[in-house]
Specification:
By secondary structure, the protein is α+β, with helices and mostly antiparallel strands. 27% of the residues lie in helices and 39% in strands. The chain has a single domain, classed as Nuclear Transport Factor 2, Chain: A, CATH 3.10.450. This is SnoaL-like protein.
Length: 158
């Protein structure tokens, strides 16, 4: 049986043959507030970033998203579960773990993925995060969550 050379498992290796991938995984898994001002070491000046809440162009705007994350959350941390790389792009699946300032004892986890593209200089020029904001965020809010869970039950096939 042939192994797919594209799939990389973080538990064994973060694609040792691609230093760009290893570097960005290390960045996400060990990201600290102090690293945000150094994002230019990994991201291009004209980078594009999109997630369920933001869509921005440029390094300063991307840095501001990470600054906001550290300002609003306690102990934000990404755990990369898998990485798939081919050419100048990669796809990561991850768990984002954090605590809300309003509920510091309760660990929150969002499961998601990121699609990244590198430019010719090896910097991230495109970063798109995919995760279900309704299920993993809005449904946990007291009033809105109850309504969304009710709608979800009504639309479910079974």
């Amino acid at each position: 049986m042939l192994q797919n050379p594209i799939l990389q498992s973080p538990s064994t290796s973060h694609a040792a043959d691609d230093s760009r991938l290893q570097s960005v995984i290390d960045l996400f898994e060990h990201l600290k507030f102090e690293d945000v001002m150094r994002l230019g070491d990994w991201y291009s000046e004209d980078c594009f970033f999109k997630d369920p809440f933001n869509e921005v162009q440029g390094l300063p705007a991307t840095q501001q998203i990470f600054v906001h994350m550290f300002q609003e959350l306690l102990e934000p941390r990404f755990v990369v579960l898998e990485a798939v790389a081919r050419g100048d792009q990669c796809f990561l699946t991850w768990d984002f773990r954090f605590r809300l300032k309003s509920r510091p004892l309760q660990l929150q986890t969002i499961h998601g993925s990121s699609h990244l593209r590198w430019n010719a200089l090896g910097r991230v020029s495109y970063h798109r995060d995919y995760w279900d904001a309704a299920e993993q965020f809005y449904e946990k809010l007291p009033l809105l969550g109850a309504v969304l869970r009710w709608i979800k039950r009504r639309l479910a096939a079974s």
